[in-house]
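Need a sequence for this fold. Nothing fancy.
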């Protein structure tokens, strides 16, 4: 990748955070509760990425998402480890595509434990598809000015002669 000298790249120390080192079935098992628990941080990060269009400007928001995820799984480990492991193990071994339909009994046990200990209810079906307005304290970025090119081809004057196309219009079927 070629960069110019005026492009600022963050230092490696700015990018280094502890990773969420969990397997796929483990992340799937906690995904619904995790999504609800870290909803504010996730929405802030996604809004930043959408508005800024530059991932370098959203490093702190990304760190907040990772920290929230680590905090959630630490709380689950402290309070519902055996129920969570049973549910994740069922997801891992009950089907070839990590289907949840075979694990509804272990899911309900895990959901009850999370509700009792973390006071976090499993979100309803379609919860993450609902439109929400996210309130942020981060200022909205200024709109980018329209690019102006000094050597651009000038437009035709309004009074210029406009001849019809030499071989007719390419949209001949739309004349009806």
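Here you go.
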């Amino acid at each position: 990748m070629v960069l110019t000298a005026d492009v600022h790249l963050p230092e490696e120390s700015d990018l280094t955070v502890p990773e969420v080192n969990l397997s796929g079935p483990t992340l799937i098992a906690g995904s619904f509760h995790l999504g609800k628990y870290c909803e504010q941080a996730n929405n802030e990060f996604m809004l930043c990425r959408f508005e800024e269009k530059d991932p370098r400007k959203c490093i702190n928001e990304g760190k907040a998402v990772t920290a929230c995820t680590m905090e959630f799984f630490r709380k689950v480990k402290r309070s519902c480890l055996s129920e969570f492991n049973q549910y994740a193990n069922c997801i891992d071994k009950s089907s070839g595509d990590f289907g949840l339909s075979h694990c509804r009994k272990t899911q309900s046990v895990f959901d009850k434990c999370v509700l009792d200990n973390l006071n976090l209810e499993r979100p309803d079906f379609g919860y993450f598809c609902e439109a929400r307005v996210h309130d942020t304290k981060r200022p909205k970025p200024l709109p980018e000015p329209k690019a102006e090119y000094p050597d651009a081809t000038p437009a035709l004057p309004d009074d210029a002669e406009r001849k019809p196309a030499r071989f007719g219009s390419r949209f001949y079927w739309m004349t009806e």
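For context: The helical segments are 12-15, 24-37, 39-52, 59-94, 104-118.
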